[in-house]
Amino acid sequence: xxxxxxxxxxxxxxxxxxxxxxxxxxxxxxxxxxxxxxxxxxxxxxxxxxxxxxxxxxxxxxxxxxxxxxxxxxxxxxxxxxxxxxxxxxxxxxxxxxxxxxxxxxxxxxxxxxxxxxxxxxxxxxxxxxxxxxxxxxxxxxxxxxxxxxxxxxxxxxxxxxxxxxxxxxxxxxxxxxxxxxxxxx
Length: 186
Prior knowledge:
It contains four helices and no strands. It has a domain at 113-185. Helix content is 43%, strand content 0%. It has 186 residues and is mostly helical. α2 (113-132) packs antiparallel against α3 (141-162) and α2 (113-132) packs parallel to α4.
């Protein structure tokens, strides 16, 4: 019975395969490839290098002046008479011109040290005056923390100003001034 069931299942599949046929490719004309062009190889004549020209005579080398040697340590022994040597001219020491110091590079909006210090001190004074106008006692804990932060920033700005770090000092002073003005407004 099993064989019959298997044959029944395979019969339609076998019938479908039997009717299928492969299609033959369409006849197309063959491509005609043209012949390669003829190759012509030309032989080149080997050129000889031009004859070398003689180099003109070099100027004579200047005689080098011997450097004076440092005196050797004095040994105590029998002094031997030395014949007098001809006087040798010692060249004068050469002076080297020292270039002037290079000025510090600055951007166009950067001011010199004295001017920057004056401007930063003005900002610090402004922040101090603003903080002086604020009564510390009625402030809540958050505003007291901001007040203390502004005082600390002023101190740090003064320290940076003493070490001539003008960029840091300006930033700290401006931040302290901003905090002081915000506390005053509230």
